[in-house]
Specification:
The complex is a heterotrimer of chains A (379), B (445) and C (327). Chain A is built from 14 helices and nine strands. Chain A is α/β, with parallel strands linked by helices and 379 residues long. In chain A, the strands form two sheets. Chain A has a seven-stranded mixed sheet with strand order 1-8-9-5-4-2-3. Chain A has a two-stranded antiparallel sheet with strand order 6-7. Chain B is α+β, with helices and mostly antiparallel strands and 445 residues long. Chain B is built from eleven helices and 19 strands. Chain B has a six-stranded mixed sheet with strand order 10-19-18-17-13-16. In chain B, strands 1-8-6-3 form a four-stranded antiparallel sheet, with helices on one face. Chain B has a four-stranded antiparallel sheet with strand order 5-4-2-7, with no helix packed on it. In chain B, a hairpin with a 2-residue loop joins strand 11 and strand 12. Chain C contains twelve helices and 14 strands. Chain C has a seven-stranded mixed sheet with strand order 3-2-4-5-7-6-12, with helices on both faces. A five-stranded mixed sheet of chain C has the order 9-11-10-13-14, sandwiched between helices. The chains are: A alpha/beta (379), B alpha+beta (445), C alpha/beta (327). Chains in contact: A-B, A-C, B-C. Chains A and B meet through helix 4 of A and strand 5 of B.
């Protein structure tokens, strides 16, 4: 892992070296990251195993359970979308699970999460029930946004999940504002803001990072670099490929993280959370990951080769983590099967719930437009 | 457990997909997420990923075939799993789905096929006012409307005032609040003047100023919005009888007094050389001034009423027929008409007419009496509304005062454009024409 | 009642509401140390401190979005645009985030915030700094749009906007900051949103005018009075939701309407009002509704051209005479 430090405000620089799995001389090359990752596979695997020791068994099982849950949940969602029961767009997260699960496992329940439209996993990780997420996908009244948001707009105020936002980069200023509010109110809540690497090209990213460091806001910007903005590769879209390096422009602490290693993500987030909570400082994490499915269910996928996808699938975050858990004896085969069965039941329950839930009442069309509607309004 | 592979929804708008290529054969190992087939959707050719792992046991649709969303197109299962029940189920579903749309289209096409028959078409049109077929009505309404502000219309309705009796003082003659207020306060026509709508209609027409014609010397005219009924009649009849739907009215006229008059005048002034035809022109012009509906022309959305009777007189020439026009015949003396007709006919035969001398009549007369024709029908020269076909004057026995007497009788047949002139309108004109021609003294009354 | 400028009235509203509610904060370019580009925020930094009054970088999209996020987390931000011309940079956050958040979250996240600043025509600052954008914002369900035309309205409405639980676009007319009027100094004084004000009563024609056009319409009404035409002048004050009731009631009385606005005519607020009158009071109209709008061109710089681009008293008088069939 690398920590870009140059300015005096690089809080947390010292502890950053503790997790280094990529040496300082071989920074991740955005031009051929998969190769680097492959060369380092054994090293990375060992690092993951080492991290296992830092967590108790229940926490590890919980992380594994969550990763498997969101994987199976989305596989089911894909199936249901194919059957035409889910409308609109459906952006799947398969392959990226380590990012949402790892980072959200590092925060408190009252901390905030905002993310993009590829958000099913973040929602479930933050504490939304699979039922309410599935029902939202179905456009049912029992969905987490009452069927008004859909796949791209999941919200739950109860668990401070502040939404999927569907304009690329749109959530970045919002998250900055949420962090601003926490600081204003004097709470020690932190805000996680997830976005893809394509959002980094938006002005909103740069405007937000500038304000966050200027006003010392407890916001953690997690760039999920899955290397494609829809069908356009990072190389074709960004003049300087090193995203974590961009933090330098705003004097923000940053790290590059292996996004296929759930515990690496968790640990990097923990460091950022500490910086945010104790010193009210932002951090930019570049988490290198890969999406195994298309951009959305209507993605023809002709912009990358099958071989490339397969190469990344060798480092499937769930496979990697389960292998480590197995080798270290955390979970036995029968326990794996038990979790698989539990997850299957959870997903099926969510589908049943969604199927059986009612559609929104037609009257709902005109509710929630205004918090304090005025009589003379047409609504 | 076996996984049914269904035709997936690969775009938000996709309804069916065509299987362009299977990427796996039956018996191949398949794992979750692996590409299974290529599907052509409405948007693109897309890879379909397997949503289950095992062996591709059965392919249910072949390359090039299409399937609706959700149809089972393959089965993935364990190598030794019994999938026969699934196959049966899938093929049953497939044939049911194939049948269903066919049935729908059978019933769906029935109402469509009906209007194809000619009988059905006219039947449908007869049912006026119900259904979209009556476009004419919807279009007609604005054209037939008086120009009136919504408020004035409401005030008039509430006070029982017929707006057609109101003259508008707003822009373009718009009837506005103050016009109705003046009426209510008794300044003009009382609110009860509701009788005889036909008359008021004519009065409203008279209020419109005459416009100059584009043709030099041709009669000025005023365009009055064609009423809804008039347009419906026009539209309907045209579908039946060409673009100008003719009908014919024939009457027999006693010509003794006209002939007497002609003789008398010509004795007074030998130069004049008045013909019976000249008298017919003069009488027709007189009758037209009393029946402006016949001195008119159908203009699709309006009916054009001419200020004067510009009467075309058909003249046979070697190459065919030409109809020079006696302009404002209603304003001219018999002598003037006679002189003019002679001159026009002469020049017509010599092909010396200027266009404005044979274009833009309001009414025409064709006389074949000199050829011994007793009676015939003439074809209207559009856009005129009528033409009078005049037969030969012949002595005939007729009954007068219970006695058989010989009279000079002449049969005339008027062809009318039914879009403008209705049967009764034409008949009334012809009645007047006959009355004057039989009593030519009426010309000077 | 004290007579103050609109600038001071707005300043009073900000101060009173910030003192009233700790969760209200003000941010924008030059609102603090500079005392406000138009001095509306004068003295607030000194009185309330830099936690509550925040000078931002020139980063409209960023701080507008930051404000929406802060509102999601329970604060009541007031975001000042130095002029509404710069809000164009922030429209993604105003429209896609602020306006829709409550709806797409199924009623969970209200956005109690105010976007405010000067708008409309200014004095010879040409096309990019002189434009009326209310029809843009009023188009979107979820937003409320307010445009005061007097110092008292400015104060009462801004206080209501700050207390309102929805995102409010509050457009102050740049040319009117110096306009004076009586303003209550009562901290409880508010004017409810969504309520039109009959600025002058009359019987022969209704003039609907907002913002800068209100004083122009009142002047036109005086001229017309001398010509024997009695005009009713209605100021909707809130553009969305618009108080159609008051307008319709007036139209039913006068039967003739002129709508004056400094914005472009195409797809404008006057077009909307006109349409509504046609739908709801058609049978009461004695003449077509007449609009008097700003010229359908970008705002020119030259003084004579600028004057031509903004509706004036003569144009409104002529329009009223036309609908009253006097010419």
């Amino acid at each position: 892992m690398r920590k870009r430090t140059s300015g005096p405000s690089r809080a947390g620089a010292e502890d950053a070296s503790a997790t280094g799995v990529m040496d300082e001389d071989a920074p991740p090359q955005a031009t051929s990251p998969p190769k680097i990752l492959q060369e380092r596979r054994q090293e990375l695997k060992q690092a993951q195993k080492n991290r296992l020791a830092d967590l108790d068994r229940d926490a590890l099982i919980n992380i594994y359970h969550q990763m498997l849950l969101v994987r199976r949940f989305e596989e089911k969602a894909a199936e249901i979308y194919s059957a035409g029961k889910i409308g609109g767009f459906c952006h799947l997260y398969i392959g990226q699970e380590a990012v949402a699960i790892g980072s959200i496992s590092a925060i408190r329940k009252d901390d905030y999460v905002l993310t993009s439209y590829r958000e099913h996993a973040h929602a479930i990780a933050k504490g939304l029930t699979p039922e309410s997420v599935m029902a939202e996908l179905y456009g049912k009244a029992t969905g987490c946004s009452k069927g008004k948001g859909g796949s791209m707009h999941m919200f739950d105020k109860e668990v401070n999940f502040l939404g999927g936002h569907a304009i690329v980069g749109g959530q970045i200023p919002l998250a900055t504002g949420v962090a601003f509010a926490a600081k204003y109110k004097g709470t020690d809540q932190v805000t996680l803001c997830f976005f893809g690497e394509a959002a980094v090209n938006q002005g909103a990213f740069h405007e937000s990072l500038n304000m966050a460091q200027l006003w010392k806001l407890p916001c953690i910007y997690i760039c999920e670099n899955n290397q494609y903005g829809m069908g356009t590769s990072l190389e074709r879209a960004m003049s300087s490929h090193d995203i974590s390096e961009k933090a330098t422009a705003y004097d923000i602490a940053s790290e590059f993280v292996d996004g296929m290693d759930v515990l690496a993500v968790r640990e990097a987030t923990l460091r950022a959370v500490e910086r945010a909570r104790k010193e009210s400082l932002p951090t930019l994490l570049e988490v290198r990951t890969y999406r195994f499915m298309g951009h959305s269910m209507s993605d023809p996928g002709n912009y990358r080769t099958r071989a490339e996808i397969e190469q990344h699938q060798e480092r499937d975050p769930i496979k990697l983590f389960s292998a480590s858990l197995k080798e270290e004896g955390v979970l036995s085969d029968s326990e794996f099967q038990k979790i698989e069965a539990e997850v299957k039941e959870q997903v099926e329950k969510a589908v049943r719930f969604a199927e059986e839930s009612p559609l929104p009442d037609p009257k709902e069309l005109y509710t929630d437009v205004y918090a304090s509607p005025i009589k003379s309004d047409q609504n | 457990m076996a996984t049914q592979v269904i035709m997936p929804k690969l775009s938000p708008t996709m309804e069916e997909g065509q299987l362009s290529r299977w990427l796996k054969k039956e018996g191949d190992k398949v794992s979750m997420g692996e590409p299974l087939a290529e599907i052509d959707t409405d948007k693109a050719t897309m890879e379909m990923q397997a949503l289950g792992s095992g062996v591709l046991r059965k392919i249910l649709i072949q390359e090039g075939e299409s399937a609706p969303l959700g149809q089972i197109i393959a089965i993935i299962g364990a190598p030794d799993e019994d999938i026969s029940a699934l196959i049966t189920q899938a093929s049953a579903a497939k044939s049911a789905k194939a049948a269903a749309p066919a049935e729908q289209s059978d019933t769906g096409s029935q109402p469509q096929s009906k209007p194809d028959g000619a009988a059905a078409t006219s039947e449908a049109k007869d049912v006026s006012g119900n259904g979209r077929g009556e476009d004419a009505q919807a279009e007609v309404v604005p054209a037939g409307r008086l120009i009136v502000s919504p408020l004035a219309a409401r005030m008039a309705a509430e006070s029982g005032i017929d707006l057609r009796a109101v003259s508008g003082s707003g822009p373009g003659g718009r009837i506005i609040k103050r016009d109705v207020e003046q009426l209510i306060s008794g300044a003009r026509i009382p609110a009860t003047a509701a009788a005889q709508p036909q008359q008021r209609h004519l009065r409203a027409v008279e209020k419109l100023p005459f416009q100059k014609s584009a043709t030099a010397q041709a009669s000025a005219y005023r365009d009055e919005p064609a009423s809804e009924m008039r347009r419906t009649i026009a539209k309907r009849l045209v579908t039946s009888l060409g673009p100008v739907p003719h009908f014919f009215l024939t009457t027999e006229i006693e010509m003794d007094r006209a002939a007497e008059m002609r003789k008398g005048i010509n004795q007074l002034d030998a130069e004049l050389k008045i013909s019976i035809n000249d008298i017919i022109i003069k009488v027709a012009a007189a009758a037209l001034t009393q029946h402006p509906q016949v001195n008119a022309s159908f203009q699709d959305k309006t009916v054009r009423y001419y200020e004067h009777a510009d009467i075309g007189v058909a003249v046979a020439i070697d190459e065919g027929l030409i109809t020079p026009i006696v302009r404002a015949a209603d304003q001219k003396s018999l002598g003037e008409i006679a002189t003019e007709v002679r001159d026009l006919a002469e020049r017509a035969r010599n092909r010396k007419l200027r266009p404005e001398e044979y274009m833009g009549a309001s009414f025409s007369i064709s006389n074949l009496g000199m050829f011994g024709i007793d009676e015939f029908t003439a074809i209207i020269n559009p856009p005129e509304a009528a033409i009078l076909a005049v037969g030969a004057m012949t002595p005939k026995p007729v009954v007068r005062n219970n006695e058989m007497v010989i009279r000079q009788m002449m049969r005339v047949t008027m062809s009318c454009d039914h879009r403008v002139v209705d049967g009764a309108t034409g008949a009334k004109f012809l009645q007047t024409f006959k009355r004057i021609l039989e009593n030519p003294l009426l010309l000077v009354v | 009642m004290p007579v103050v400028t609109m600038r001071e009235a707005l300043n009073q509203a900000l101060r009173e509401e910030m003192l009233r509610d700790e969760n209200v904060f003000l941010m924008g370019e030059e609102v603090g140390a500079y005392q406000g580009a138009y001095k509306v925020t004068k003295g607030l930094l000194e009185e309330l401190g830099d936690k509550r009054v925040i000078d931002t970088p020139i980063t409209e999209l960023g701080f507008a979005g930051l404000g929406v996020g802060a509102a999601m987390a329970g604060l009541r931000p007031i975001v000042e645009f130095m002029t509404f011309n710069f809000s164009i940079l922030a429209t993604d956050q105003i429209i896609n985030s602020a306006a829709k958040m409550l709806y797409m979250s199924g009623g969970q996240f209200k956005i109690p915030m105010v976007f405010r600043g000067p708008g409309g025509s200014a004095f010879q600052v040409s096309s990019q700094h002189s434009q009326a954008l209310e029809s843009w914002f009023a188009y979107f369900p979820g937003l409320k749009v307010v445009m005061p035309a007097t110092p008292a309205d400015a104060k009462g409405l801004l206080k209501s906007a700050i207390r309102d639980d929805d995102p409010v676009i509050f457009i102050e007319q740049e040319r009117m900051y110096g306009q004076k009027g009586e303003v209550p100094d009562d901290a409880d004084f508010t004017i409810p949103l969504g309520l039109a004000d009959v600025k002058r009563e009359g019987t022969d024609a209704t003039i609907v005018a907002r913002s800068l056009m209100v004083p122009v319409a009142l002047k036109a009404a005086e001229v017309l009075e001398k010509q024997g035409v009695s005009c009713e002048v209605i100021d909707p004050r809130t553009i969305r939701p618009l108080d159609f009731e008051t307008i319709i009631t007036s139209v039913k009385k006068t039967n003739r309407v002129v709508i004056a606005e400094e914005s472009h005519p195409f797809c404008g607020v006057a077009a909307e009002i006109s349409s509504e009158i046609m739908e709801r009071a058609f049978d009461y109209l004695d003449a077509p509704v007449k609009r008097v709008s700003g010229a359908d061109v970008p705002m020119p710089y030259a003084k004579n051209l600028e004057d031509l681009a903004i509706p004036n008293v003569d144009q409104i008088v002529a329009a009223v005479r036309q609908v009253a069939y006097l010419d």
